[in-house]
């Protein structure tokens, strides 16, 4: 069984529509796919309606959070949330706040670029991005304007934290996010915690603390994790009885990573499903596949 628990659609910063993602997941030979867009559940309904017969859909989200590094400094961290109740009041309110933060940040960065003479229209960037705006949308605007040649070049230059155009945003404290997801009946899994190319890494000690505060698992097998990273996270997961997942972090054309690049063992998915009480899994062809959202 091939299980990919971390993918994105154009509801956030992927390029596939939810329908295209389901089609591409089937073509890639996946049996189970999770839709985990940034700070939004907007793709859930269309993905469920387009679910191929026999394929299982795990409804999720990737939440923008703040942790700390080894020196106690704030660091951006992403937390995957699976099978939570999307109508849970606290979590729904936090999703709305995070999307507002995203839009405010991208508008501010685009405005700084425009003020500096770059051919960027802040309003157009936001219109193209939709409700879950992120730096990848600004990267695409920079590519279209001929400022950079690729997403990697954009993130290494004008979108980097060292850039004069960079604007920070206020993310959810990790401990609060873990608690919210649990209260909404979901299971939290720390995403790509050792992806060093993204910036400073969160402290391993904080991962251990979160394990005692309700964290469900660790995304161990990820395209941006080396063998030492995977070994470290595996040890932490074993020490604290955490679920271990593997995922592609697929973004369509925005990243050169194919669906199913890294996968999750069936028993680990079973553990997620057993712990969740928010929403159930959906199976293509079942009577409630498109209706029980």
TrEMBL record:
Pfam families: PHP
Domain of life: Bacteria
CDD domains: PHP_HisPPase_AMP
A GO MF term: 5'-3' DNA exonuclease activity
InterPro entries: PHP_dom (IPR004013), PHP_domain (IPR052018), Pol/His_phosphatase_N (IPR003141), Pol/histidinol_Pase-like (IPR016195)
Location of the Polymerase/histidinol phosphatase N-terminal domain: 3-67
Name of the protein this chain belongs to: PHP domain-containing protein
Organism: Speluncibacter jeojiensis
